[in-house]
Amino acid sequence: MNLERLEKILKDENQPKFRLEQIMKAVYEDDVSSFLGVSTISKDLRELLEKEMKILSFEVGKVLVSKDKLSIKALLKLSDGNNIETVLLSPRPARNATHSVAGGRDIWTACISSQVGCPLGCEFCATGKGGFKRNLTAEEITDQVLFWKQYLRQLSQGRSLDVSNIVYMGMGEPFLNWENVKKSVEDLVNPKMFEIGSRSISISTAGVKDGILKFLEEFPQVNLAISLHFVDNEMRSKFMPANKAYNLEDIKKDLQDYFKKSKRKVFMEYIMFEGLNDSLDDAKNLVVYLKSIGSSYLLHVNLISYNPAKELSSEASELSSLALFKASSKDKISKFKDYLLQNRINATIRKSLGSEIQGSCGQLAGK
After folding, report:
1. What domain range includes position 40?
2. For residue 14, what are the contacts with CB-CB under 8 A and spacing of at least 6?
3. Catalytic site includes residue 125
């Protein structure tokens, strides 16, 4: 919600200062989706605000729900005609959950986008294959969370459901839109707005010069995730062009500096591709690399099964190279994890959610 616009309208209407707080409470705590639903202000003011502005900065396109009701993806149409996607995930049903989308599940994670497209161009990612359009504003970023809060409220049927966690793992590279991402995090933790705990927020990056240490300085309690995927510079540069400017040695050095100032756990994301990075030798190289960083007890590897993306167009020229990538077998992923654990590297296999609706890691394309 555009608070500056709202404040100006209220000031022009000679409204008392507490009116803004009343409206913010209705929007951020009560999850109203329209100014007409703000019962604490006059009918005339409600109608004026509804005419002058909208709570969300985008229109909601289609919403897809997975069969197990644990993943929901929304296509959002921005005011300039661009599209982004955002995903709501529930990794486990809550106690006494029913089969409805809002069936009492107590853990909901919003996976949000920070850019329209992505400039990094990772060969295995549908977002990168779609190209880069622009950065999102802080408002457009946090409005994704606001949308999901409204969505859960509408479906909750009186139960108290809300977004519990935020992950910046949607479209875009957050560190390349840092000022807007920074403002969005400040709003998310603001007790007068979303009031989400810093430790319930995670930001994922493929690696950008000066990004990790700037992140630590600004948000020491927010979780950091590194999209690693390869521990050979030649391979990583081939499939992740950003590695040419900021490589594995740069990541290692910045993480070493990070751990001098913080004892917070860092998550290393590792998508497993058949025949590319899933061999025992790859596991050995990963162990060597992580131990070379030091403080390896603070590094946690998330092993992720590759999620193939559908084509972006009938010609499929944008995604032709995605056919080269295939998911590693469950057995290989399990053995890979066991090797890491045997060598005292913390590791888990991340549960795959949303692939059925093209809402998993690397599948978002804004289509």
Report:
1. 3-52
2. none
3. no
